[in-house]
Amino acid sequence: MHNLISRTAARRHAILACALICAAVSTARADGPPLAAQKPVTENFFGTQVSDPYRWMEDAKSPEFQTFMKQQSDWTRHVLDQIPGRDALEKRIVALDNTATQIRDMQFAGKTYFYLKSKPGAKNYALVMRVGESGKEHVLVDPETLSAKGADNTATHLSIDYFQPSWDGHLVAYALSAGGSEQSTLHVMTTATGKDLPDLIDRTNFGNVSWSEDGKSFFYNRLVKLADGQADTDKYKNSIVYQHVLGQDPDIDKPVLGTGLNPDVKTFDTDIPSVSVTPGSKYLLGILSNGVQNEVTAYIAPLDSVDGANTPWVKVVDPSDEVTALVLKGEQLYLLSHKDASRFKVLRISAAAPDMNHAELVVPEGRAVIKNIGVAADALYIQDLDGGIGQMRRLPFGGGTIEDVKLPVDGALDGLFTDPRALGPLFSLEGWVVSRAWYRFDPKRGVARNTGILPRSTVNASAYTSEEVKVVSADGTQVPLSLVHQKRAKFDGSHPTLLEAYGAYGITLDPFFGPGYFALLEKGGVIATCHVRGGGEYGEDWHKGGQKLNKQNSISDLIACAEYMVKQGWTRSTKLAIDGGSAGGIVMGGALTQRPDLFRVVIDEVGVSNALRSEFTENGPPNIPEFGSVTTPDGFKALQAMDATQHVKAGVAYPAVLLTTGINDPRVPSYESAKMAARLQVATSSGYPILLRVDYDAGHGIGSTKAQRDHLLADKLSFMFWQFAMPGFQTAVSH
């Protein structure tokens, strides 16, 4: 966003913005849908006046808002469908996407593997199992054979949100939701027959299912049932972990962990509790995650003492210990912490008598960031990230020193799964130009073996390469930039470029192999990823460096990477697009309003554009730890700086903008994108299109089908090519 300014200056800015931008009222126009009606609402925050001309849009059920969204959607579809090369481009994207089977969330139970699979030609992911790496696959749940009714009584697709097999693999719990809403309903299936049990539990968005070792029950999180008229912001508050006994009515399940159950357990209403069972340990872990905050509060109790609300929980850590993960190995508890260790360290304490004051340091902080830890039968496995490359180490149990695990691919290490009864971890590896494969490490041979369960993509990537560079940001910080391009690319400024960024929650943008994106590379394009502060590429300091009052660093980092791309001759401003989504929308909005001259296209996907209002959405309270609250001076200052709708100025020549939203989005409500589109449409002087793309069978994108993702990518790339004046994509509609 704009640099932070004084309260007096902010007030003048708000008043001026309202005078210039809010002057227009709902008017018809020939080159697009009517401009949105403006009904300014003004608020005072610590002496600063803030005006919101589109507050009325927050009533998503109102006919006025629904009409606005439908008009925007119809116009956007009309414009995009007129681009001459769009349909052919989508066919190419689909063909590329169908060169690769996609498998994610793989885990094993004994000799049985479970995973979500989307085969070539499939529209969505199915839940699949196989006994052994070379065993025959069995499809357990295929959402393509299922359908549901949406809010308007029209058919909508179903997606699998998550799944968890029992420890012996005889049962599997899985969650379905409709239309990308992530409003999960939990089911239980017998894997031998493929038949569902009668057990059906709704409001399980954050199920975090953990089975008992005997497979007769499981622990799970359930959201409260909102009463009529209860605020949407209460939706994710005061959720409870229950113990469900198979065959029992879920409404009489015993509560085990959560608000108001046990006086020895202090909770906040935004805590998301979970409980986990670990085979071979007689202890139960209870975790309280305060919204999106990475640091947790953790409790422990003997398994044989579980007694509903009377379970004798003992506190292990609270957020001041800066622990982000805990794993059990029998009587030992391993903890991942960044306290006095920005790149993380691993500690060990007794499960029987947990005392952080006497924690043993078993893996000290090093150059690489420790991302995750897992317990197998033979060792503690440590997942590292070093300069964007995933690495692994192991610390053998029963003595021995920590040792490196040799990996066959330099790229992203993901999906680390361990079972304390089994040797070695399961994980995936992929690179920018190397498709994903799933590996199992054999500690006896010291080899990471490709399971062969996921065949390589048949996309010919031999003509392309990737490289990692460092870019100096505004304050002198060196920011990593990943580049993917043709091997023979010249520095002549000719390359259509897509520059991506995110920068929140400590999440890293790891290398990934996206077959559909080769449709851009084939046209001489460059795919660039700027690893802005706010992510976790260099540990917790990097995360905090782009958080709250430091959010400007995330925006400055992206601007620096864009300037580097132009200066080095990779591209020019007229062929440069930036793309970010969700919390990455803050970075997109900031770059757009601060440097509109630097980009030809901005793509803002389900983006946070109205940060000042985010905490008043159903998903707002859990996100306060990451972004702050308007109820405090510093929180307001940070959120005002992040709020792109507050920094749009009338008469500025903004680049072409494509905003996207899913009408069922439970994370970022559609009105945020709608407000941003309305602001830009009345303010811009460039004549370039400001489009709002609305998907009425989608949410935040997490539950979208492969067909929906391909369709969106075709829209994004064709919009770019049109605006870049590339041959074959030009239309009579004004740029």
What does this structure look like?
With 735 residues, the protein is α+β, with helices and mostly antiparallel strands. It has a domain at 464-515 and 522-723: Rossmann fold. It has 12 helices and 40 strands. An 8-stranded mixed β-sheet has the order 33-34-36-35-37-38-39-40, with helices on both faces. Helix 3 (86-97) crosses helix 12 and helix 6 (551-567) packs across helix 7. It is globular, with a radius of gyration of 26 Å. It starts with 6 loop residues before the first helix and ends in a 12-residue tail after the last helix. Mean pLDDT is 94; it is low at 1-25.
| Fourth CATH level, the homologous superfamily of the domain at 464-515 and 522-723 | Alpha/Beta hydrolase fold, catalytic domain
Beta strand %: 25-35%
Quote the CATH topology of the domain at 464-515 and 522-723.
Rossmann fold
| Top CATH class of the domain at 464-515 and 522-723 | Alpha Beta
How many E strands? 40
Name the poorly predicted regions.
Answer: 1-25
Shape: globular
Structural class by helix and strand composition: alpha+beta
Can you give the helix content as a percent range?
A: 10-25%
Distance between the termini: 26 Å
Spatial order of the strands in the main sheet? Answer: 33-34-36-35-37-38-39-40
Give the second-level CATH assignment, the architecture of the domain at 464-515 and 522-723: 3-Layer(aba) Sandwich
Largest sheet: 8 strands, mixed
- Rg, rounded, reads 26 Å
